[in-house]
Specification:
Strand content: 15-25%
CATH class of the largest domain: Alpha Beta
Number of helices: 15
CATH superfamily of the largest domain: Zn peptidases
Oligomer: single chain
Shape: globular
Structural class: alpha/beta
Strand order of the largest sheet: 1-2-6-3-7-17
Distance between the termini: 46 Å
Length: 466
Amino acid sequence: MRLLLAAVLTAALGLPAWAQSQPRPDQIAFRDVYRELVETNTTLSAGDCTLAAQRMAARLRAAGYPDSDLHIFTAPGHPKEGGLVAVLPGSDPARKAILLLAHLDVVEAKREDWTRDPFVLVEEDGYFYGRGTADDKSLAAIWVDTMLRLKQQKVPHRRTLKLALTCGEETNGAFNGAQWLATHERALIDAEFGLNEGGWGAMTEDGKRIALGINAGEKLSQNYQLEVINPGGHSMRPVKENAIYRLSTGLLKIGAHDFPPEATDASKAYFARMAPLAGGEMGAAMTAFSRNPGDAKATAVLASDPRYNAMMRTTCVATLLNAGHATNALPQRAVADVNCRIFPGTTVEAVREKLQELVADPQIKVTAQAARSDPSPAPPLTAAIMTPIVKEAAKRWPGVPVIPQLEIGATDAAFMTPVGIPTYGFTGMFLEPDGSRFHGLNERLRVDVLYEARDYLYDLVRIFAK
């Protein structure tokens, strides 16, 4: 009678789907893995990726993984930026392994800026809140959970599975664990292909799934430093020549500039396939752009959406400022960081030259910082990769297509594909129009999106590992 009454009340109140069901026991166990990752601070400034790796290794060890198959790694001078490689041997040594890749580090998050503590997993109104809930501890938790389930359930598989949890993906110039593995432990992670973050799906604000993406190439993340040096002086005798004013003027010019539209075969195909799903003015613009990337009207419409704008041109944006040395002194130095996401085929130097041209001021020195990686070729979207992905997606989300796309960010696939491990950005997760607040305040991911992706990726890995 109580169950019947609860069901009637739920229907009468019109509660959303996420409030009508309780998590299964296996989902509760998975949530605990996810919680531990989110609640382990892994920012570059104050966090510890090595600790997160050790905690995940402890879970795998408790599930029966021998120490010989668990490899915690750190590099000299980077004791808190370590990672983990875990190996689950397959029954056929002749078949090459599959690499499951995710990064442990997260973008900085200040408690005073957030509504909730960024390093406490909060489930509220159908969302998981916390730094890394989406990027990238969602995928890291799914891969750990997959390795646990396969071991505990003794699922037969011919291919060896390798899990790599790394640090340094979020910060250009920081120690990068994926790059270190590719250059120092290539044999340990050797695989026929890898699965990684990226290729996020699109959904409406009310939860309607529109399309899943899979990466077909990615833009290059590159930082540039803009610097003004000035003699300075006492603030009681201000002058017009001020390093902060001069730098600010240059930054405003960069902010007002749009790089010209460009297209790859993948981006044109993406817009062509998304057009009927988007519909209306946006859909018409997608169709027009896919046919002619030089269509100014279509470009203007697409540019109104930050994601679509980023898919059709190089973008540059100011991200950090550092100026002055005292509150009562004229600034002697003003520095800004401009982060650019460079379209394939455009060089780092060409963008630097354009930035120098835009500021139009010889006193503003524009310098390219250490490159995160070299441009990486797109891995081939073969039938062996795409067929299982598409078939399994169709079972869960009928009518929702899987569309290759140009990754507008930058991922650790850039270190794997060039060394012979073609690595695909594909998460099986859908993001709302706000992008789940990646890198911003109050990052979140829908609970149902995470649980669906967990089941989907588990089944997909089992198919690939046969």
